[in-house]
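User: Can you help me understand a structure? I only have the sequence.
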Amino acid sequence: MHSRTKDAELIEQTIEFHGHWCPGLAIGIRAAKWALEELGKSPDEEIVAVVETDMCGVDAIQCLVGCTFGKGNLIHRDYGKNAFTFYRRRDGKAARLVTRENFKGEAGRKLSHLNRKRREEGLTEAEEKQVEEARQEVSRWILDLPLAELFHFKEPADPPPQKARIMASHMCEVCGEQAMETRIRRFDEKFLCIPCFEAVEKR
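Assistant: Let's start by predicting it. Here is the structure, written out as tokens:
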């Protein structure tokens, strides 16, 4: 199959999964495509992705690479960075992809200006249309940008996360609901789930 046809299929597949097309999804598609080409699609937990954002692009990794929260091979670290680390368990091959500075081009600068104006002053109807046009242009730009101009490629600082383990559950002595043993907290001689523990802390 021609590579452009294959790429178009991957994009359509991801848009259908995610629900809309945007620059964030384009970033995720590029990261996911690198992982597919270099590491392969994940059978079960073979490929692990550690993502440092909760933005749209993470859906591309779930959809295309096969890393999901349910299987335990998609790990979210809430650092607010467009950074994606991929590991292949069988041979240890790994890389951390981090978006470069100013990778969105001129359309990205225009989009940033309009988004800032929207927050501070509000936008006219014409400017709202410009936002959508700029989003589309930035998305296309990201797809066409050479990968080395989109991402820094770095060695991961950490080893691959452990495989998902089945843990025992314990009953919270406040709400009576079951929680995984690794998420149980001890307070005043009682075992509490995290929400109940945090509620007690705030009193």
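Now, to help you interpret it: The chain has two domains: 3-103+145-154, 169-202. The domain at 169-202 is CATH 3.30.60 (Wheat Germ Agglutinin (Isolectin 2); domain 1). Let me know which part you'd like to focus on.
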